[in-house]
Every structure is written in C-alpha cells, then in structure tokens.
Amino acid sequence: MLLDMPALWYLATCWCSTSRGGTTWRQASYLTWGVLQERVMTRSYGATATWAGERFTDSQFLVLMNRVLALIVAGLYCLLCKQPRHGAPMYRYSFASLSNVLSSWCQYEALKFVSFPTQVLAKASKVIPVMLMGKLVSRRSYEHWEYLTAGLISIGVSMFLLSSGPEPRSSPATTLSGLILLAGYIAFDSFTSNWQDALFAYKMSSVQMMFGVNFFSCLFTVGSLLEQGALLEGTRFMGRHSEFAAHALLLSICSACGQLFIFYTIGQFGAAVFTIIMTLRQAFAILLSCLLYGHTITVVGGLGVAVVFAALLLRVYARGRLKQRGKKAVPIESPVQKV
C-alpha cells in the first residue's frame, strides 16, 4: 500500500488536531517523519502505466535539507527568545556534527537494505552502545539493573531479526549490508549524544546546541555534495518530481519541529515522561509501517518487540525509583535528539 500526499497530510492533521500540548505534536512530527522516510527511500516517483518510475538514491541530499531547515528554525528561535551567554568554542560542535551527519546517512541508506520495522527496533536498542560509548567517552559507571535491561534488549532484538516474516516485493529484505549500516548509525549516534552531553558543561541551551551542530552539519554536507557533484542532481530530481519535493520539505519540517518539541516535552514533563513517549512512538512507528506498507511480523518477532519495549519501560521505572530515593541517576541520552 503506497501512501500519497493527501494521506500523509491527513495523518499529520489527525495527530496534530488532537494535541493537548507539545507531547502530541512531537508524536505527530516524528510519526509522520518516519512514514515519509520509508516512502522517500523505498518507493518510486513518476511511475506510469508504461514506466516503473525512478527512485531517489542520494541520502546526503535529504540530510542537507533536514539540517538546513533545522538550522533556520534554531536560528530564529535564538533570535526571538533570550538565550544564555554562549561560551563553548565553535569548533567543538564540529565533532558532534560530523558523527551526526554520518549517522543520518547510515540511517537513510539502511532503508535500502532493511525493512523499516527492523530499523526502528535497532533504534530502540540504542541504549546498549550508548552505555558502551558512555564508558569510553565519559567514564561512566552503570547499575546492575541497567546491564540486565540491556541484555533483555539484546535478546528481544535477536528474536525479531531471526524470525522476520516475508516482506512485500516493494520492501527490501534485511541484508548484511543493511545490518552494517545500522551498526554504523547506532555507533555514530551514540558518540553524538555522549559528545553533546560533554558540551552541556558550557551551560548552553538546547536550542543553542541545535544551532551549533546543524551549522557544521550543513557545511560538511554541502562540501561533500559539491565534491561529488550530487547537489545539482538532487535539485534536478526535485524539479522532475514535485511529489518528491513536497515529501522532502514535509520530512524536513517534521525533523526540525520534532527537535523543538523534544525540548518542550523535557522542560514541561521531565526526562522520564519523555523516555516513555519516545518508546511509545517507536512502537507506533512499527505498527504504522506494517499497516501502510504491508510488513509482516511473526509471533516470535512480536514477542521480541514486546521484550525490547518492556525492558525500556523497566529502565524508566528503575530510574524513577532511584530518584525517589535521592540517588542521582545518569540520563539515558542527551536531551538533544537528532533525526
């Protein structure tokens, strides 16, 4: 089942119209973003009765569009709203930006080789490499229950990957290349969140972080596209297919708005509520993808998904208990999320 623009706009409108605050808006942004991401990278544009159409293949161009719009949104927010005095050296943003761009590229490219539910579940298991990277980069220590839940997540992901049902012909089968790209995405993204944690020592706001990271991300991506001569080709593809242009624009809007709604949710409801919302969003994303694009999940695979999300919710519960006892809990990941 292909999703056209009216259906996408209807999906976004339905979610947004029921909003009671930033929480539902954020869910609307990211769920629409997830559906669009799969549509752009796995379906053809311009298909007719006599022509199969052509697919968009340059992930970097989509990364650039997302980063440019996020940079504009963050810049306007910084201009319109009072921000703390900026004290971080600008070059320090470049490390997070480079890993940010690489993780985004791996994320888009992986959709050519794995199904969308597989990618979403891999994101849900990101806590494992985040813990490992936290030990290497930030010298953090973790509780026994954190290792337990990380092990449960590993078991759940393995159950899902080893029991995948048949995929529709229009969807990619999970391959070794796709799994390597997913591993690259998780590794780069884990480094990004831990490096951002270190940058917050300069007492900056989340929007200032968003601006700095996206600024260097734009520079890196433009330089890469110009060196490959792909910037013009991406622009030409947009000119040939107005539907793709609309999809790419809406994808970028959802990406930028989603980041801002993250900051609102954490500020208003706290990190624990944010983590629960994040977990539920990933579950909804898998369900929507299965309904819209015909993915199938076996009983064992469904149990694997349930194990992963149960482990994530257990982490939230355990952290809440620690805070009630007056112990300082280490955050799961940086408040700044990238998409």
TrEMBL record:
One Pfam family this sequence matches: UAA
Membrane-protein topology: Multi-pass membrane protein
Keyword Transmembrane in record: yes
Any GO CC annotation of this UniProt entry: Golgi membrane
Highest taxon above the source species: Eukaryota
Subcellular location, principal: membrane
Protein name as annotated: Adenosine 3'-phospho 5'-phosphosulfate transporter 1
